[in-house]
From TrEMBL:
<protein>
    <recommendedName>
        <fullName>6-phosphofructokinase</fullName>
        <ecNumber>2.7.1.11</ecNumber>
    </recommendedName>
</protein>
<keyword id="KW-0460">Magnesium</keyword>
<dbReference type="InterPro" id="IPR035966">
    <property type="entry name" value="PKF_sf"/>
</dbReference>
<dbReference type="GO" id="GO:0005945">
    <property type="term" value="C:6-phosphofructokinase complex"/>
</dbReference>
<dbReference type="InterPro" id="IPR015912">
    <property type="entry name" value="Phosphofructokinase_CS"/>
</dbReference>
<dbReference type="GO" id="GO:0005524">
    <property type="term" value="F:ATP binding"/>
</dbReference>
<feature type="domain" description="Phosphofructokinase">
    <location>
        <begin position="17"/>
        <end position="327"/>
    </location>
</feature>
<keyword id="KW-0547">Nucleotide-binding</keyword>
<dbReference type="Pfam" id="PF00365">
    <property type="entry name" value="PFK"/>
</dbReference>
<dbReference type="InterPro" id="IPR000023">
    <property type="entry name" value="Phosphofructokinase_dom"/>
</dbReference>
<keyword id="KW-0479">Metal-binding</keyword>
<dbReference type="GO" id="GO:0070095">
    <property type="term" value="F:fructose-6-phosphate binding"/>
</dbReference>
<dbReference type="GO" id="GO:0042802">
    <property type="term" value="F:identical protein binding"/>
</dbReference>
<dbReference type="GO" id="GO:0046872">
    <property type="term" value="F:metal ion binding"/>
</dbReference>
<dbReference type="InterPro" id="IPR009161">
    <property type="entry name" value="6-Pfructokinase_euk"/>
</dbReference>
<dbReference type="GO" id="GO:0003872">
    <property type="term" value="F:6-phosphofructokinase activity"/>
</dbReference>
<dbReference type="GO" id="GO:0006002">
    <property type="term" value="P:fructose 6-phosphate metabolic process"/>
</dbReference>
Length: 780
């Protein structure tokens, strides 16, 4: 018997949802609140803030929520809620408003308290009945309470989710400070001086920065990776006894190599093996006394909670808010309290108290000195970050040389994060005993012999630099195969790392095809996706896309704010991406766009007409700003000028329009924390894989690699970094439009439309979204 489908636009009718933020505030909470409100209203439910304020779609708080840090509905650690009397009073307030669905955004303490509230709900109702504060009918209508949690915590200290709301934004604040501080003490190098030692700096200093993380070292660890710090102290893995001498030796060694800048990151909960706190001041006194270095200590404090939310936190909050509402409305009296988590690229529901217990288990493991276990309990991502840091923390290259030469190149358009990938690849290669070679200007440089050794010291401060220090071009190797094969032999290159966009992918495939004719090309090859377009097959994300997304989002914020205090206005903004609509879609989610036009989702004049009429009706209410995003190649006829003219004409008397083509600013800027960390891990993983592959391919005194799995794309698939043969990815590639045939983010398109107040079905998967696109294009 087939189940009757539920209309999502009516599943909330007759129900009421309350949303509250509790505990420490975190950037991105407002995006979660906004999504909860709008999706709740979309389903027909009444939605309240926990100030007994009935929300509407056009409530003024919702119009700029995405770009605001903190929480507009307020947050506190309420002592009254710790008492039975306080919880009874809270229950009475909910019953009087008919609220039986509670969405709690906070840390593990807040979520544990909410679960306790739910557990004793029946008892609280009986207390209220006996006291005559509610009627029997009110008690019957409110017989059970559903609770769904979303984790808002900058510390990323909750087990069960890859990231908590606010963590990415906090990393942005930390890295901004690190960049600002370290620029007072360093000189940047370019491809013209790769062999120089970093001996010329404005000052000789050591910087010690304390970041938040009383029980979790995530912020400190990722900040250390993203900034190339010399040492990090985290509570999960205290340093070995005698760390003071070890630290001083490392810093002194760095200075002897010509470095005059040292960075040490300390989590506020850092401790030694005996549980004694390790503080900023303690480390400063140690370094000053033993080494005589000019040392500065900075405690970042609550600056980490402030500022505008990153694009990731806005999207994360929005996705979690949508999932939380659906979980509440689908719950039954028997459904246990759940928490909405991020697993890979999927929003999932997990049992709340199981996640809370694992989080407590981490703290217990640290208290009992089981530090290796504490790291593992934090999850695979945390463990991978820690292992990558340990690899890169060495300062002395391997004494035993491998006689292996690994070359690196950048291909395609430059993007933020490329240099971070090069830096980690170079340093891991040197630690493996390999000779590392830099190829300048992509495949052209390889054909022309523009190749030179690249040293440990020469990439010292590359992590935070945007663009491509190696130089990059879009040229493909097919027309230069003879010269390329000769130079591979001349420079005795045994393996190749290609960092770039779609050209890097196609170039890798051409090299594999060329193996049939040129034996010199039979070497292991790995492609690291790095492009703002996020269009490389084999990876959910590309290095550089997060930085571009943040640039677009912050620009949209500024553009919308530029019209504050003026009449109603709609902005038409064109984004990059080629034929890939990733940037337009995700920026639309992050910036609160009314529509985002992309190639993957075909549209015609009828769709445009619906969008214009929809926006005109919205702008007749209290809404004063509209935002329309258009991917640069979404449609050759419906250009940015066409859409601008259409909205201008149809909006006469209601709003006026402005247009902006963002252009190459999307490729510039310093890398985001995510791109620095992602690039660092990808570079390290690539060289370690090549090291193993070279051992497999070593036969009869030489390297010979001609199997499909000897030329791979290193990509992120859900939550893992995986190697996929280039040849295997051809069937999933639309070469004409330079995009993968399946793209995970298409399933987020309905959320964008619902948050913009369109009445559409929410029940759509990535597969069905893709199938609908293919059918609409008439290709099946």
């Amino acid at each position: 018997m087939q189940a009757t489908p539920v209309d999502p636009t009516t599943m909330g009718v007759g129900k009421a949802i309350a949303v509250l933020t509790s505990g420490g505030d975190a950037q991105g909470m407002n995006a979660a609140v906004r999504a909860t409100v709008r999706v709740g209203i979309y389903t027909g439910a009444k939605v309240y803030f926990v100030h007994e304020v009935r929300m509407t779609y056009t409530h003024k708080a919702g119009q700029f929520m995405c770009l605001l840090g903190g929480t507009v509905i307020g947050s506190a650690r309420c002592k009254d809620f710790h008492t039975k009397e306080g919880r009874t009073k809270a229950a009475c307030n909910l019953v009087k408003l008919g609220i039986t669905n509670l969405c709690v955004i906070g840390g593990d303490g807040s979520l544990t308290g909410a679960n306790e509230f739910r557990t004793e709900w029946s008892e609280l109702l009986q207390i209220l009945l006996k006291a005559g504060k509610i009627t029997a009918e009110e008690a019957r209508r409110s017989s059970h309470l559903n609770i769904v949690g979303m984790v808002g915590s900058i510390d990323n200290d909750f087990c069960g989710t890859d990231m908590t709301i606010g963590t990415d934004s906090a990393l942005h604040r930390i890295i901004e400070v690190v960049d600002a501080i370290t620029t007072t003490a360093q000189r940047y190098k370019t491809k013209s001086n790769l062999s120089l030692s970093p001996s010329l700096y404005s000052h000789q200093r050591a910087f010690i920065l304390e970041v938040m993380g009383r029980h979790c070292g995530y912020l400190a660890l990722v900040s250390a990776l993203a900034s190339g710090a010399d040492w990090v102290f985290i509570p999960e893995m205290p340093p070995d006894d005698g760390w003071e001498d070890h630290l001083c030796r490392r810093l002194a060694n760095q200075r002897s190599l010509g470095y005059r800048l040292n960075v040490i990151i300390v989590a506020e909960g850092a401790m030694d093996r005996s549980g004694k706190p390790i503080t900023c001041e303690m480390i400063k006194n140690l370094v000053t006394k033993k080494l005589g270095f000019d040392t500065r200590a900075t405690i970042l404090g609550h600056v980490q909670r402030g500022g505008t939310p990153s694009a990731f936190d806005r999207i994360l909050g929005s996705r979690m808010g949508v999932e939380a509402v659906m979980a509440l409305l689908e719950a039954t009296p028997e459904t246990p309290a759940c928490v909405v988590s991020l697993s890979g690229n999927q929003a999932v529901r997990l049992p709340l108290m199981e996640c809370v217990q694992v989080t407590k288990d981490v703290t217990k493991a640290m208290t009992e000195g089981r530090f290796e276990e504490a790291v593992k309990l934090r999850g695979k991502s945390f463990e991978n970050n820690w292992n990558t840091y340990k690899l890169l923390a060495h300062v002395n290259p391997a004494e035993v040389k491998s006689n292996i030469n690994i070359a690196l190149m950048n291909v395609g358009a430059p993007c933020a994060g490329m240099n971070a990938a090069v830096r980690s690849a170079v340093r891991i290669g040197i630690l493996q005993g390999h000779h590392m070679l830099a190829i300048h200007d992509g495949f052209e440089g390889l054909a022309h012999g523009n190749i030179e050794p690249i040293s440990w010291a020469s990439v010292g401060n590359w992590t935070g630099q945007g663009g491509s220090n190696l130089g990059t071009k879009r040229s493909l190797p097919a027309s230069m195969m003879e010269e390329i094969s000769l130079n591979i032999a001349k420079f005795n290159i045994h393996a190749l790392v290609i960092i770039g966009g779609f050209e890097a992918f196609v170039g890798g495939l051409e090299l594999v095809t060329g193996r049939e004719k040129y034996e010199e090309l039979c070497i292991p090859i790995v492609v690291i996706p790095a492009t703002v377009s996020n269009n490389v097959p084999g990876s959910d994300f590309s290095v550089g896309a997060d930085t571009a997304l943040n640039t677009i989002t912050s620009t949209c914020d500024r553009i919308k704010q530029s019209a504050a205090g003026t009449k109603r206005r709609v902005f038409i903004i064109e984004t990059m991406g080629g034929y890939c609509g990733y940037l337009a879609t995700m920026a639309g989610l992050a910036a609160g766009a009314d529509a985002a036009y992309i190639y993957e989702e075909p549209f015609g004049i009828h769709d445009l007409e619906i969008n214009v009429e929809h926006l005109v009706e919205k702008m007749k209410t209290t809404v004063k700003r509209g935002l329309i995003l258009r991917n640069e190649n979404c449609n050759s006829n419906y250009t940015t000028d066409f859409i601008f003219n259409l909205y201008t004409e149809e909006g006469k008397g209601v709003f006026d329009c402005r247009k902006n083509v963002l252009g190459h600013m999307q490729q510039g800027g310093t890398p985001s924390p995510f791109d620095r960390n992602f690039g660092t891990k990808m570079g390290a993983k690539a060289v370690l894989w090549l090291t193993d592959k070279l051992k497999e391919c070593y036969r009869h005194g030489r390297i010979f690699a001609n199997t499909p799995d000897s030329a791979c794309v290193l990509g992120m698939r859900k939550r893992a970094l995986v190697f996929q043969p280039l040849a295997d990815l051809k069937s999933n590639t639309d070469f004409e439009h330079r995009i993968p045939k399946t793209q995970w983010w298409l399933k987020l398109r309905p959320i964008l439309k619902i948050l913009a107040k369109y009445k559409i079905s929410l029940d759509i998967s990535e597969k069905t979204a893709l199938e609908s696109v293919i059918k609409k294009r008439g290709t099946v």
